[in-house]
Amino acid sequence: MAKGYKYAYYPGCVAQGSAREVEDAMQGLARVLNIELVAMTGAACCGAGIMKQANWKLQAAINARTFAQAEAEGLDVMTPCASCQGNMHEDLVKLQSDAALREEINEVLERVSGNRFEGTLQMRHLLQILVEDIGLDVIAEKVVNPIDFPIGGYYGAPMQREGACGDDDPFEPSYFEQLIEVLGGKAVRYAGRTQSVGFPSLLSEEESALKMTAAVLSDAKQEGAKILATACPLSHVNLDTYQVKAGKVAGVDTSIPVIHLPELVAWALGCDKNRLAQLRTRVMVIGD
Amino acid sequence: MSVVTKVWIDEGCIVCDACETTCPEVFEVTEDTCLIKDGVNPNDFSEDIIEAADGCPVDVIIYEIAGAEDDSGEGEVPAEVEPEAAPEQVAPVAAAGVAGATAAPAGVMAAGEGEDELAAVMNGDRSLHVLFGSQSGNSEVLAATVSKKSADYGLECQIHDMDGFDLASMASMKRILIICSTWGEGDMPDNAEDLWQAANADGAPNLSGTHFSVLALGDTSYEFYCQSGIEWDTRLGELGSTRITDRVDCDVDYDVPAAAWMSEAMAAIACVDDTGTFHADLVEQMKSKAAGDTSAAGAGVAAIVVLPEIQVTVSIFRYDAQTGAAGQDTWACAIPGHHSVLDLLRTLKATQDGSLTFRDGADSDPSTGLMVNGRLVLPGMARISDCVRVDGMLRVEPLAAYEVIRDLVVDLSTYQNMRASSEPWFVGREREGVNTEQAVMGVMDASVATTLHASNDISSQSLLHASSDTVQVNPDYIGPAVVGQLWNRACDPRLSDKAGKRILTTLCGINGIKAEADMASVSRQGRIGTIGAGNLLEAKNAVLGEESFSGRHGKHVWWFTWTVKSSGLLNETILAMQTMGPLGMMKNLPQMVRMSAGFTRTGGPIMRDKQSYLAAFGIPASIGKLPPLVNSSVDNHHEVVALFNAFDKRF
Known about the structure:
The complex is a heterodimer.
Chain A: E1 5-9, H1 20-32, E2 35-39, H2 56-73, E3 77-79, H3 82-97, H4 99-113, E4 123-125, H5 126-134, H6 136-142, E5 150-154, H7 175-182, E6 186-188, H8 206-222, E7 227-230, H9 233-241, H10 243-250, E8 258-260, H11 261-268, H12 273-286
Parallel strand pairs in A: 1-2, 1-3, 3-4, 5-6, 5-7, 7-8
Chain B: E1 4-9, H1 18-22, E2 27-29, E3 34-36, H2 46-55, E4 61-65, H3 86-89, H4 114-121, E5 127-133, H5 138-150, E6 156-161, E7 175-181, H6 193-199, E8 211-217, H7 227-238, E9 242-243, E10 248-250, H8 255-269, H9 283-292, E11 305-306, E12 309-320, E13 325-336, H10 341-351, E14 370-372, E15 375-377, H11 384-387, E16 393-397, E17 404-406, E18 409-410, H12 413-422, E19 434-435, E20 440-441, H13 446-455, H14 461-467, H15 469-473, H16 479-490, H17 497-508, H18 520-523, H19 526-546, H20 551-567, H21 572-587, H22 589-597, H23 637-647
Parallel strand pairs in B: 5-6, 5-7, 6-11, 7-8, 8-9, 8-10, 12-16
Antiparallel strand pairs in B: 1-4, 2-3, 12-13, 14-15, 14-16, 17-18, 19-20
């Protein structure tokens, strides 16, 4: 029997809300790759870089509770969301390095839940787990529907910092590109792949967010990408749902299909053939 | 009576055994040369040594006597020996004669001679080589500390990463310190493994001319405590190197023993002179000198971690404002990994293209900032090895937030004007002084002063300004650097109320902190990014609190946080409705319809699972992808509420 992997699964709020296709794809790829996703039904929202604008200590306390739940299971936390990864990793490091803060939060946490956060777990993104744990060679063996297009991977800014993106280079990352090649695509490197699309301010500072979104989309297109795959379901809202508006605001061509990283992997592994067929039709027949 | 302080053998020994016959306590004749015996203190046998030197048929026994260093011709040194030239002519074999000499009695010199002797020892080659084997970085940090202290001992330190280090070069080094951690079950750290294999191979060099000491890092909870350090200590001895002080083994709390080791080992190894001879009698004086010499103390010397040459493909942005031509120039070159990006640019300009334009200056010049492979750096402070991509590519570009003047030179006035117009001037309040011994003066609480200093400890404000992705799309945004400086002023208790109010008004304005679309783009840019993003966050906390979470920005944060309290999860529907309001929802109708109908432009699962025809659990929600109007709560939701009540009762 193939070696199995087990993680405390933190899908993030958007994957449970407006981007449920992420959840579909996650379950599919986990099944094929023999990954056990242990549901964290008690985990709360990570704050998405927004809650800390009200009170960073409150956000750290909420995330400490989530970490404590995973620690109780003896598992590392895995998320398919780059914003969750960046945000929670930041709080994890803060809690691990500041004993006074940890103790202050643990006192309350222990009182309300009986749990304590000890700082023994790791916060991991799906992309890191696919490359570092599962292995690209294993994934390559399981590809049944190569997605043979020029594909740009979008990492986003939140998790592209030292320590939060595994062993990948935060500024010149290559995990996504390596994965795309393994899945049968042609990886398109473009400068905007680690830039922010301004998701935390989409509803409050819309014009800036849309211009940032348009810059990323336009850059990927100019470098030859036919599809964009994103490691962040939150950024997907900007890149996909607000794509047309972003193009109009910035005055650039932004039209390009945008899918989620878990979809890219799951479809290549043979899941949800209909969605893959739709994508092929969009790229090959409809075009931009 | 003459006191011999040093003795060594020059080249050309004919192994006649005459010296060993005269003074067997000092001289040992082997098959091809003569050696000075280990642990010998020459002044104990001064007369015999001089007699042996006189009797040597080829005059290869050379010695020095106390007070005769300037060759005054007092007759104590054989006429044919030229003491001044001797250190350069001889191989440092005499070093072998002092192994274990740390236990030798100190103070063997006549009073008053010590300072001259110490000065003599500190002439000539003073190189110290520190090799670190590190898995988590602790050994590297300690190596850097040694480097900083080295000037106190008159040493010129070079740090070497064991990874890629050429073992053969060790034979020519007089002074070597090893700092090595242990990994796993007694394993070498990854960066030390290759060097360790080389040290144990057949071709390992003879290190008889070298002196060394080892600091071993480990963890007593493991069976093979400090095993890597132990092995290096043993192996260097086997290769002929002379142990200058005993190895020190450190547990996880290594600060104190490591400091003690540095004090002993650095003082001892600093007493190895230009010829490779160890002067045990000067160690205590060296310690005193290091402790009392404040000229270099604290100033430190930049650590130079010597790294092997690496092959680099350099791609540099070029732009000519006169013609409007822009593009990339690419060069392939080999350059030592420890060289800075600025070194590389200077070399290219000097040897390849004199028209290459970039801001030159001191390593820490804040106006020299560039983007190298996506990192914002001061090129004089950025090592090639830290920036180069795995495939050897090094992309050098101007800072994206500014207009390019030529090639890599940008117009920093964008930031400077923004700063000037924000009026971050300090206008102090009237306050009572404190009567101190010096004078009546204003004082500040130390912790406040420390916090203020830390939040403004930015190596380059113009670099920090460029870290925000928002700056590139919103030219009116004052940027993270100006926000940080204003916030720093606002937190200063000496600031007048009027000035504080003016600063807060600027921060609250539409081009103030609220214009920053994503702090994540700032916080990922290393140390300045972390400090800059910390300032942004504190300023945003204060501004939103000041405005009681009103306006679009305030509502956005308020309702996001409120929905998390209410169920444990974000409710996107409520957040969008409350933040945008009915008018905003109408303006974004296409986006709202797309989200609620459940399809993406990629061809998402339209009317997902036909949920639109269902009334899920009695709630008219889940239409397509539309998130529910009312979330299901997470398990043990009361815990989330309790945390809110404990840390922020406003929600």
